[in-house]
Amino acid sequence: MSVRLITSAADRRLLDESRSTRAMTWIMAIMLFLTVLAAAFGLGTLSAATLLDRQLAGRLTVQIVEPVDHAREAQTAAAMATLHRLPEVVKATEVSRTQLAELLRPWLGSDGADPDLPIPAMIDVDLGVGTDAAAARVTHAVMAAAPAARVDRHEAWMSPVSHFMNLMTWLALGLVLLMAGATAAVVILAARAGLETHRDTIEVLHMLGSTDIQVARLFQRRIALDTLFGGVLGTALAIGTVVLVGMQLTTLGSDLLGGLALSSRDWVLLGLLPISFALLATVAARLAVLGVLRRSL
């Protein structure tokens, strides 16, 4: 199946391609604009979800909830010593009481800095490998050294966020596929409408010896160009929108939203969308035209 990007003057006169603007081009621009936005959202969400999983997989928080000060300090020291000996632990840092008071300030106000307030000790732990087995070994060792310890995996309490982001990624993929299907449907309708418009001309071409394949090439070439030109326009507008939104996200200072940034691979995939849709339109137009010609003409 061959498609020439530059049509001859005869072909343009035959299929009324002398018009500078066709509705098909603008329809495809809108379709690609929405498709690229959905794809960018999906790729950005996938990147953020992957980054979140990687960051949280090996993170633990150890709390020593012993109410007696000297016992809490002793168990904290024992837990720190145990964590430093474990090969699975890359880093273990005790959170100072000042930092804990700042964390509690939104709920307790200035009372969080009261030295008589029994605030649990807290230790941030980074594991070299964030597997379930490694986390279980570390938890068991810490509990043996500090009976009042509670070990929380960041991955566990952030899993609803991760699941939601994965759901949004699949939703974006579904939207892209839906837009591809809608594009194919629009192409089929446009091809059939063109056949009806040029029915008399096509009958003359058949009498002159033209085959169905040759007639189909005229339509698929026109529709491919319409889709490509409109797709490039819609993609350019969508990419500009994505860049603008990305600049706004960087000003928010959120690590989670900052992970929505697109990689070089993502930009390449977005740039390939108008070409992919042009190929899809070409195939859809060819099949639609050949199907109608074989049945009625």
TrEMBL record:
Instruction: List all membrane-crossing ranges.
Output: 167-191, 227-247, 267-293
**Protein known as:** Permease
Keyword Membrane annotated: yes
Is-annotated flag, keyword Metal-binding?
A: no
Tell me the InterPro entries matching this sequence: FtsX
Tell me the superkingdom of the source. Bacteria
Sorted alphabetically, the keyword list is: Membrane, Transmembrane, Transmembrane helix
